[in-house]
């Protein structure tokens, strides 16, 4: 029998956010000020190199993936790989939502191939591995139509390189038009499984209405009628031992955990997986999640400009600052800092009747947490 609270999806939006425990809050430090296109993802490699990415959401970024060098972001691994006119859809970046460094000195690029949240370009949704010793692409895994639906928007990814011949990747589908879900990819063969598609835990909470900067966040097109902005499975994190996957919808005040062994096993049904899901209770709505080597999970709070930590079954506020304007992606560095982008996503023109309220620069911020990343290798 499923351990999910009955009728959770219909009542979750009525549950108030928890009263967060407080501790001495970490100072927020500015790592870089970013001008031009709005970034979403950030990752800090074990050797300290910092990478960011820029999806095709209308800002026309000159490249999809970049490395932060001397305070400026430059195309990575080169301009050709970032050129949408180069070769076929598997040969270049189309619209990148996430970058994640692993424990084998590689940068993984998750390409949605879905500019503007459109239907993914056939053969374009993919995982691309770049060797950070040579800065060369060493593996491209195209995600097929059995896991990438016409409505799919692959969002974030976590790795466990100890599984199988070359490791496994866990990916969230944060569709705004169809079912959310999880995608599990064998890194040796490229074979993938779509899991929990349209399950209540991977879908937005009906009636979800976040309030940011005094206004309910909704689609507000110029001259059009406001409509709810509902985003499916987005944030993802993995436990320090690799046995548990955490995930949440962007449009939700809940997050969940599930055993990774069940997700990987093709003989296990979605019904069996669903029976093992744990609802970890109410939290502030967040975009990305992150994890550290001591088993803590971190989440942004985009309603209140805060960073929260989940440990021993409760959430604690560890940073709150007016500069935390939509904490998007979070990444733990080996230097003991939690890095995150603050990209003012909620101020985009589509939420304000065609008026772009974003004010540059965007920022890459960090706070001291004292723990390192989870590197399962």
TrEMBL record:
For this UniProt record, the keywords arranged alphabetically read as follows: Secreted, Signal
Keyword Secreted part of the UniProt annotation? yes
Domain of life from the UniProt record:
Bacteria
A single GO CC term for this protein reads: extracellular region
Renumbered to this chain, the signal peptide range is: 1-21
Q: Which Pfam families match?
A: MRJP
Where does the UniProt annotation locate this protein? Secreted
Please report the name of this protein according to its UniProt entry: Gluconolaconase
Q: Which organism is it from?
A: Sphingobium yanoikuyae
């Amino acid at each position: 029998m499923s351990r999910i609270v009955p009728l959770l999806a219909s009542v979750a939006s009525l549950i108030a956010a928890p009263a967060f425990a407080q501790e001495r809050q970490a100072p927020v430090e500015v790592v870089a000020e970013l001008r031009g296109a709005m970034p979403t993802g950030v990752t800090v490699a074990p050797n300290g190199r910092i990478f960011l990415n820029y999806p095709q959401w209308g800002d026309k970024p000159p490249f999809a993936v970049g490395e932060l060098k001397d305070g400026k972001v430059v195309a990575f691994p080169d301009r050709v790989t970032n050129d949408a006119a180069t070769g076929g859809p598997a040969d270049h970046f189309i619209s990148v939502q996430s970058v994640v460094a692993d424990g084998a000195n590689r940068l993984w690029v998750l390409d949605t191939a879905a500019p503007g949240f459109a239907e993914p370009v056939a053969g374009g949704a993919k995982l691309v591995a770049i060797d950070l010793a040579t800065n060369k692409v060493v593996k491209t895994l195209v995600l097929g139509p059995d896991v990438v639906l016409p409505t799919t928007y692959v969002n974030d990814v976590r790795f466990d390189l100890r599984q199988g011949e070359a490791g496994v990747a866990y990916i969230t589908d944060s569709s705004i038009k169809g079912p959310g879900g999880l995608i599990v990819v064998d890194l040796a063969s490229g074979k993938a499984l779509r899991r929990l598609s349209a399950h209540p835990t991977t879908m937005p909470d009906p009636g979800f209405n976040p309030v940011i900067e005094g206004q309910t966040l909704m689609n507000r097109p110029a001259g059009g009628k406001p409509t709810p902005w509902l985003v499916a499975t987005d944030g993802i994190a993995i436990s320090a031992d690799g046995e548990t996957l955490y995930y949440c919808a962007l449009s939700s005040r809940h997050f969940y955990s599930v055993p990774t062994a069940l997700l990987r096993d093709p003989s296990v049904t979605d019904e069996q997986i669903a029976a093992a899901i744990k609802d970890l209770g109410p939290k502030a709505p967040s975009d990305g999640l992150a994890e550290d080597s001591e088993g803590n999970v971190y989440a942004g709070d985009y309603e209140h400009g805060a960073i929260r930590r989940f440990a021993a079954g409760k959430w604690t506020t560890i940073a709150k600052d007016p500069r935390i304007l939509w904490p998007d992606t979070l990444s733990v560095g080996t230097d003991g800092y939690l890095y995150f982008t603050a990209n003012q996503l909620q101020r985009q023109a589509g939420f304000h009747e065609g008026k772009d309220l974003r004010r540059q620069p965007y920022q890459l911020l960090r706070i001291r947490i004292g723990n390192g990343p989870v590197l399962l290798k």
